[in-house]
Design a protein that fits this description.
- It contains 14 helices and 24 strands.
- With about 475 residues, the chain is an alpha/beta fold.
- The chain has a seven-stranded parallel β-sheet with strand order 3-2-4-1-5-6-7, sandwiched between helices. Strands 16, 17, 18, 19, 20, 21 and 24 form a seven-stranded mixed β-sheet that branches.
- Strand 2 (about 35-40), helix 2 and strand 3 (about 60) form a beta-alpha-beta unit.
- It is globular.
Amino acid sequence: MAHPRIMLAAPKSGSGKTLLTCSLLRALSMRGKSVQVFKCGPDYIDPMFHKKVLGIPSRNLDLFFTGEEETKALFLEGNDAEISVIEGVMGLYDGLSGTSEEASSYHLACVLQTPIILIVNARGMGRSVLAEIAGFLSMDRERLIQGVILNQVSASFYQSISELVEKECRIPVLGYFPTQKELDWQSRYLGLKLPEEIKELQKKVTQAAEAFEKTISVDAILDIAARYSEEHPLSCERPSWLIAEAAPQKVRIGVAYDEAFCFYYEDNLRLLERAGAELCFFSPLRDDSLPKGIQGILLGGGYPELMAEQLAGCEGMKREIQDRIQQGMPSLAECGGFMYLHEEIVTPDGRKHPMVGVIPGKCFDTGKLVRFGYASFQFPRPFALENATVPAAKHMEDHANEIRGHEFHYYDSDACGSDCMAVKPVTGKSWSCGYFGNNHYWSYGHLYYPSNPGFAFWFVEQCRRWRS
């Protein structure tokens, strides 16, 4: 199978990638096309928009998290869509630390042999847009950039500038997207606001898709994806943990999911299920108790600081989580979930909001990004699976004690923990962090489980043994 695919990328963040990606997704679905969507890089919010538009999960592809062959396998796994759409991250060539091409959108496009449509926000520009496009084409050694879309321009300007772009840059201009204030999706410090916070999102996306169809050639995008993918078919060797028979789902794990806790990698959840987990979603904001019969708890990242007062008022939920963890129930808590386990969260107005209280300390706003970016998280021992009851455990090749992820937060803690070591990939800067024991991991670090599948199998096994 050729796996038709296309990447929407841009010279920089804020160019309109997510809006145009969602517009294209809705336009394709309105045409009756089956679509698979991916996000390049460590992003949670953009995939939420993708999922809202298509009604199917969006998955992340990141070449820092996984090697080239494994990333290909993750792209191909279960992917029989008529077209795959990949949304780029940051600027096209922006990789590790901003100075390397590694793990950039372009690196991913090269590995997946995917044609690129370059979205150029030409607002406030004239002929200078030619220089920007020409510069990006000059760095495209694989000649993957197959077309350009001009964003936030008028019809009259487009008619005059598009001819110049095609003549002087020798690249097809596939259309333009006019400025539409009603489609402006606002941001906050961790990215776009959540889809649920945007009024009439579905209506707005449909309007955007209709505008996209009028001024951008969807047919040309489909033709590029089909032609290029036929000429560059993808194949790879699947890693053993994807080949192994999935474990029977006999372990129930409660997963916090609501406005306060919503940052999850789709492939993390899939891997937990493959290891034998049945995921039972619950809301610390609304539910009175944890799901019945669970043997483990997963508290993902999100915005607990924005919901601190509501979370503080849910005494029954906080007390039950505290009791279960103190009884030894296995638990994972990342970033927002990690904050939730503290004694309190202090909001910028100085108010102290009591939380679960498992970690003796408080979280507070620093007003700036803290330990931002990729990191390798080194654990004090490997994720051993000896004598495990997980069927796939015997296929695990790497029981190393390292797993890759990232940190992205403005709040810090006076009790960050010191059981693990985080190391930045380019500078080598390191710091101690987190709490890791026989049955738990709590830290500000967001982990990408497929970078070391043994972690997911280890956690599910701890849940199984705790139940026994």
